[in-house]
Amino acid sequence: MENIRSSGNIARSRLKYMLLNDRVACTAETLSMIRKDIYRVLSNYMDIDENIELVFEQGDVPSSSYLSARIHIKEIVR
């Protein structure tokens, strides 16, 4: 029974992401460019992993959304 709940939660999360992505109208190409820009800028200051995870999320107000980035920092460049 737990697997069904997990599958349901995963499907719900994917659907929310797809709907939010459509609402924001951000293409895969645009996300790729954003990812590359973030990497280029941050790599001037720190050693980071190239695999940056970007996720659109909905804010507290229904019409607001934000982009969240998960970045693995290996070390700070001094």
Give an overview of the whole structure.
The chain is of the alpha+beta class. The chain has one domain (2-76). It is built from two helices and four strands, in the order ααββββ. The strands form two sheets. Strands 1-4 form a two-stranded antiparallel sheet. It has a two-stranded antiparallel sheet with strand order 2-3. The longest helix is centred in the N-terminal third of the chain and has 23 residues, at 2-24. The relative contact order is 0.15.
Protein traits:
alpha+beta, two-stranded antiparallel sheet, 2 helices, 49% helix
User: What is the general shape?
Assistant: elongated
- Look at the helices and sheets and give the structural class: alpha+beta
Strand content: 15-25%
Q: Largest sheet, described in full? A: 2 strands, antiparallel
Low-confidence stretches: none
Q: What is the radius of gyration?
A: 16 Å
Helix content estimate:
40-55%
Total domain count: 1
Cα end-to-end separation: 51 Å
Element order: H for helix, E for strand: HHEEEE
| E-strand count | 4
Q: Which strand order spans the largest sheet, edge to edge or round the barrel?
A: 1-4
Count of alpha and pi helical runs: 2
Question: Could you report the average pLDDT, rounded to the nearest whole number?
Answer: 80
Topology (SSEs and partners):
Blueprint: H1 2-24, H2 28-42, E1 46-48, E2 53-58, E3 65-70, E4 73-76
Antiparallel strand pairs: 1-4, 2-3
